[in-house]
């Protein structure tokens, strides 16, 4: 298992235990479809279908598996395929010509629907098959007793002699030895159910396995992973704790425990688990990458980069780690370095929409919106149902001042995810640029409904209300912005303008005093302060403020060489 068998079109680097490719959905090498057909190699690929070379594990016959590609087909196409397969199996029962190809089975496993075709050429059964089947049946249903008429030597007979105080000693009673019953392999059953996504069934099997053998580490670990899938994180933690008590030096168990703690938001203990894993295996790449991602999420990007560096030294072929490094560098506004990391991820796997999206965001930050737009368009083609890609594409169009096109893409993003506060906010900005103020205000209100801590939305809403001469409402919006950031200079300035429009001159002057004290180099606040002072009859102070504002304007022009 591991790398996708469709090397040319997909080639996604899956985890070793993956049964199906995480990108295109086709089976990986070694996967047992329905526990029977072992996938060996990809023979060919047509539009929407793939054909595999495989082996039937029950008959040891080579078979051909034809399957639909999950990511390229919809539910109706899969249903039609299964109906056609059922008909083909029915027709094949009437085919007996030597060398003919027959459809002998069909079904669905995980995301894949498939049919099985084979030639009737017999192959010699392995000598162990019959005895294995007989042993399984007799062990499950009948006690394994010696056959009638068989002879048992003295050495094979267990004799029990009973001491009798008086009388004649009775002849010894032979006791026949009964072989141990075959023990049910609950662990394998649990693993198989887990791989098929049947988590309730997997959990039941793992619990039976732990009752059968309470020291079976793999069963406790499987139980933990299954419970996490079922949303029972606290119970999963208990299972991993038991597994670690049995195998305390296993870095994989410590890393898995860290994942559970991440879900439980126990971040300090999560980091402790990564540290433990790396104590027992300093080169365990999954612990380094997990540690890096946890640090990045907790707001420690520099420390996260150190962890990613170590992980990539150990395994530079992990595109997900390169992407995580690129995302972290992007958050630090180190855009040139972020671009290098994302390009390394692209060289390993260019099929992920998130990579195209991230690279587009980097290029937009580097003031290259045209190039960014092409990348975001590709992301929306790969994952047309991803709201974030449509949002980022709309941002490119906004930067290019293609406001109508941007508005359409913001609407598409919000159709996919109406809770996307950033899309509502930027939609409001585009509508404001189109001077559609009432619609813009509605968009800002939606943004604040989903994120009332969005300072810029409060500020922009206040500015629009001021423009519409709804000064009292504007004042309330500016106050909300300043409650979130008392040093928001533009909000103090515009609050002063709203108070001035309401005739509250002393309060307006106080607001502008705040603006000039926080940003003495900002000429607009000084000009506005001069206007208020003039209105208050403090003419000399007004002249001083106006002269200072002009001086700041001239300094700015000189700095720009104008």
Automatic annotation (TrEMBL):
Repeat as UniProt keyword: yes
One Pfam family matching this protein: TPR_1
Keyword Ribonucleoprotein part of the UniProt annotation: no
Domain of life (superkingdom): Bacteria
InterPro entries listed in its UniProt record: TPR-like_helical_dom_sf, TPR_2, TPR_rpt, Ycf3/AcsC/BcsC/TPR_MFPF
Keywords, in A-Z order: Repeat, TPR repeat
TPR repeats mapped onto the chain: 217-250, 251-284, 285-318, 319-352, 353-386, 387-420, 421-454, 455-488, 489-522
The name this protein goes by in its record: Uncharacterized protein
